[in-house]
Input
Amino acid sequence: MIKIHLSAILGKYRMTQAELARKSGIRPATICDIYNEMCDRINLEHLDRICEVLDCNIADLLEYKPNKIKKTGKDLIVEANGNRKMNKK
Output
C-alpha cells in the first residue's frame, strides 16, 4: 500500500490546498484528491511541482507499507483478457 503524506506536510507548513494549487499550477481538485489519498495515479509532473513548492523529496510525500494480503506472485491470476483477479483457494 502506498501512503500519501501531503496532508501532514501541508499542516507542517501551515499551507492550504488552495495555496499549493496556486503555487504549483495544479488544479485544486487534483490537489484535493492527492491530499485525501483518493487517487489511483499521480502524474510525475505533479509530484515534481509539489516537491518543488514544498522543498521536499518524493520519500517525504510517499511511503510504501507492505500489504497484509499479498496481491502478487502465487496469489495473482492474469486472465486471458489481461484483467487481474485474486486466486481463490
